[in-house]
Amino acid sequence: MASLFSFRQTYRYLQRQAHEQPVIFYSVVIGLIGPLMVITVPPIRKSLGYKTPEPIPTSYPIPNRPRREVHGYEDE
Q: Where are the residues of the annotated region Disordered (predicted)?
């Protein structure tokens, strides 16, 4: 019975905070939803058929040939 009374007090406190300080209340709610989404969203995306794209290249591919010497840009 004590746990039910404690739940009621917690619910009433949260309800009061939602009315008196809604910005803080909903900031906390959104902050608590974030870690849950880290756990739940990837399996849902996978079940819907989403495939991760290939990683973006971070460098330009070097051609497989000998380098030509550059002419015409001398400082002299």
A: 53-76
% residues pLDDT > 70 (the chain):
91
Residue 32 CA: distances (Å) to CA of 13, 17, 25, 43, 64: 17, 16, 11, 19, 52
Looking at the predicted structure, is the pLDDT value of residue 52 above 80?
Answer: yes
pTM, rounded to two decimals: 0.50
Q: Quick check: is 54 in a domain?
A: no
The answer to whether residue 35 sits within a structural domain is yes
- For 22, the token pair is 């809604």
Output the pLDDT for position 42: 92
Q: Which two tokens stand for residue 39?
A: 């756990």
Residue 1 has pLDDT above 60, yes or no: no
- Residue 14, Cβ neighbours under 10 Å: how many? 13
In-domain check, residue 64: no
Domain count, the chain: 1
